[in-house]
Each structure stands twice: as C-alpha cells, then as structure tokens.
Amino acid sequence: MENWRNNKIAFFILSMPPTAWLMIFFTLPLAIMWVYSFADRGPQGQIELAINFDNYIRAVEWIHLGIIWKSIWTAAIATAITFAIGFPLAMGIAFAPPQWKNPLLLMVILPFWTNLLIRTYAWIAVLRTRGFLNFGLEWVHDKINAFFALFGLTDVLGQFEALELLYSHNAVVIGLVYVYLPFLVLPIYATLEKLDKSYLEASLDLGAGHWRTLFSITFPLALPGIISGCLLAFILSMGTFLTPDLLGGTDSEMIGNLIARQFTSSRDWPFGSALSFLLLYFTFIVLWVRATMSDRNSGPVK
Amino acid sequence: MRQIKTSYTRRNFLRTSGVAAVALSFGGNSAFGAESLNVYNWDTYIGDRTLADFSESTGIEVQYDLYANLEEMFAKFQAGNPGYDVIVPSDYMLETMIAADMLEELDKSRLPNFKHVDPNFLNPSFDPDCKYNIPYFWGSVGLGYRKSKLGNVDSWGALFDNPDMAGRMAMLADSRFVMGVALLYLGFSANTTNPDEINAARDLLIATKKNLKGFVPDSGQDMLISGDIDLVMEWNGDILKVMEEDDDLTYVIPKEGTVIWIDGLSIPKGAPNIDNAYKFLNFIHEPKVKAEIANTIHYATTNASAKEFINPDDLANPAIYASDEVVAKSQALSDVGDSLKLYDAAWTEIQAS
User: Which residue of A has its CA nearest to B340?
Assistant: First the structure.
C-alpha cells in the first residue's frame, strides 16, 4: 500500500505548522533560557550575558540538591497514591458497560473545565481547620455521641478535635494527587481499552482466579500505559509550584517554588534558568530510562 | 486591595484583563490625533472617578494597564519602555530603576501641586529629594491578630518569641519584608548588607518557623478571619478589610517599628506623551483628587493638603495612618544590589530547614 508519507510535498506542507509552532513557542524560548543560564546577574537584576558556570555550580549546592531531592520524594509519593487510586478507576471505566464509558470519562476530564487556581482554592476551603472536611467529621462525631447518649453513655468520643490538614506537606500531596489524577487515568484507560479481552477470558477459563488474572495478565499488558501515566504524573508533580505555595506549610518548598522566586522577588533570571535546566535534564533522564525500558519490552518475544 | 508581591489570583485575572487592555488600546489609538496617555499601575490602586475626571478636564484619553507585582513591570522595561508614560514603582524598585537609568528626572516647575506633598516623604533614602518620583501612597506590614486570644500586642516578640501560640501564627511569603522585620526586631537595618546580620535574621526565622502555620502568599487575612490562626504578619490594607467584618480583629505596628512601603508616580524614559504625563502627575496631586483616591482605596496618602477631604474614620485609624513616632522607627526597603543573593540564599535555607 502507498504510504502517505511518501508524498514528500504533502508531508512537507503538513509538517510546516507544527514545526513552526514548536520552533517559535518551544525551542526558541528554551534556547533563550539556555543562553541566560550562563549569564551573570547585574546589580539591579539585569541579565548580563557571559559564559560561566557559576549558576550551575550554585544550583548543585547541597541546599538546592536537598530541595530537589525533597521534590522527587514528594512527587514519588503523590504518584504512588495517584496510581493506587487511578489504576482501579481506569479499570472500572475500561470494563464498564459501553453506554457508561463516555459519561465516566467525562467525569474524569470535567475538572479541567475549571481553572486550576480556583480548584486549589477550593481545597483550602475543604481542608482548613474550620473547613468542610472538619465540619463533616464534627457532624459524624456529634451524631455518634448522640447515639450513645440514647443509652445513657455521655461523651463516648469526647470533645471533637479538628484535624490540622491544611498548610502541611500532606496537604501538598493531597493537592498533587487531585490535580494529576486525570493525567494518570487517561493513558492507562487507553491501553486497557485496546487490550484484547480474550486474553483475560482465556486466563479465567484456564483456572486462574481474578486476582491472578489481574497481576499476571492485565497488569503486564497495561504496563506501557501505566508507565506513561505514572511518568506524566511524576514529572508534572515534580515541577509544580502553585500547589505547595497555596496548600503547603513552612516545610513544603519544592524546586518549582525556588525557580519561581528567582524570576520574581530575587530577580535572578540566570540562576533561575540554570535551575530550570537542571530540572529539564532530570526529566530527560527519566524519559530516557523509560525509552530504554520500552525498547526492552518491545524486543523479540522469547 | 493592593499587595506588593506575587498573588496568583491577581496575576491570573490580570492576564485576562491584560488581553482586554490590549484589545482596547488598539481601538483607542485608532482615534488618530486624539491626545492620549498610557498609565501602568497596580491593580485597584486608583479612585473610581479619577481617570474619567482627568479625561473630562483635559481631553486626554487614558490607556490604563495593570500589573500584579513590580518584577513583572520591571521585566517589561528591561527591553526598553514598551510605551508607558506613567508608572508606579515602590521604594526599592524606584532605586533599581533609577540606577538602571530607566526614569526621567522630574521637572518640578511643571508640577505645581508638588507643594502638597507631606514633608516627611520629601527625602526618601531610595530617591533623595524625590528627583524621580512624586510619593503616591504608603502602607506597612504589621501584626493582624484576634484580641480575645492575644490581648494587647505591641511587639514583634508576639510572633518571634511566643511558643504558646505555636501553630496559630503565620507570616507573609515575601522574603524581603519578612527578613526586614526580623532584622528590625534584632536591632539591625532592614536593608543591611552585612552577611552576619542577615544570617542572624535567618536563624531567628528558622527558630520561629516551627511555631508558624506557614509562610502564606497574601492569604493571611483569610486565615485570620476563618479562625485558622490568631496572629499574622500581613499588609495593613488586607487586615483592614477583615477588621471591617470582625470586631475581634485588629492591626498593630509593633513598637520596634516596621518595614513600610512607599509608592511613587514616575515617568519612565522614552515616554511617548511626556507632556500629558506631567499633567496627569499634577492632576493626581490636586488635594481633592488625591482625597477621592484615598477614600476609595483606604491607603495612607502622602499629600498633606488632601487630608481635610479624607474620611475622618480613615484618618483616625492607626492601621492606616500610623503615629509619627512609629513611622520614625520604620524603614522602607531599598535595593540591596548584589546582596539580594544573600537574602535569597537565607530565604532558601529558611524554607528548606
């Protein structure tokens, strides 16, 4: 069959807009930041072009590496929790009756219709000391107390103590899980959807239980989607700055906040650029690991 | 109300209004030959009628753009004046822009209303003799707190040395203001460039941090009124807003003094309508005009003659007009040049500790 790619003129014309878009809005700004990352900060915060590695040397100081390490940990924990919630969710949607799939998918995507900032502020209203979550818990608490009071037992649970959830590292993790859940669910759903269900039927017919089928058949077959989804959630969590800024306490600074500060109050764009590129290189390494892993997976079947 | 550093709300909404402003300015400029003026100001930092009145009395059309923080404004000017005639930089940013040769020296003979400026503001450290700015409004950071929980507070010690209130206090997430206040509490200058003093302030803040609920980006007033915390270091304007809603809240500038901000009106180099800019600066400092702005935004004016037209409740409110004694002990931030790196490093250590 004739491959449409063989029509060189058509291919050239069709590839022009995306190439131009990538050049102007991705490669060029990135190139500028790359040049800046070797520059000096002038006394008024100007960018004085130069070629030195001071910014990179500063970027790998222990304190900054510590913040990067903390960001990796936070992102890893958030990704693990997102996966624990997202995988069953993706499976539920993929194996739901056909007429339910689209409404369920819509519910996963629906939050994107509202600005991230507003959704994060909503979490403040939920998690704060006198927020909806604590109000709900207090209501349940009072009801249980009232129930026992019917039998003459007063104050079984004692005074209600509000949970201090907001402005903590836990709140940041909750926020990250919430924000990046759809990014993890969608790729996993896509692979599960394409998965040939007859493999699962064969597994069940041949005597494997549901759990065995899940771990020995579904999971390995969905692995490419799982890796993509987890990587997406991890990389996005790693670079976030809004969530820790709004939900975090005094110990929640992540690499994104550090970078954002260089472009605002510290007015040190060169250092901020160097930190950004450090984050970018880290992302490339993660993607490279993923690429080599998938090369191995797609190798000849033994 | 207004606030000095990054606020995501404001910034995001500004993006949208920025787009609207650009769309408007295309429409506006098409009226060829009409006199115009491009003003670049903080959000919610002008009277309801000021611009309309100015246009009515002078026939000059005003294009009005907003910024959310000074760094955003400065970044635009780094590549040359994008076409603004009047800008409103604060203290340290004025100093920065003067040093970077971005501002016109003001010709006072064209500003007869300059005589109304309160003498206290005529010789600021960041712009001696006000060569490049007319002071516009000023404000402070201080302590907003719940009276029924803390009684009477008069010292920064209520924040820095108060383990009893652990978990019930917060500070602004603004490195220079927080460091400045810590430096003042320790008896140093809020603008020190001495690494030992900066490190002492850092250590004080690291020790204080365990008692804090967070360094919050301009949401301290919401935490205060919702009962999440009882004491917060915040902008006076923000606390003022919640004081109107809850009688139990109040604001104090501690006796050690505080870090104040002073904003000035300036004309950037390369302003396309420099004559109109002078007219605007002079118009703003008409006592009645200035009072109308002050009565809208509730910040403290630098215009002595305007005070007779200002709402007496505002004048009597120590959260707006602090006593001269307190003002004398307070400092505005100045540009610390390369030492900003020391402040940034200290702030990073505070956050990471």
Answer: A266
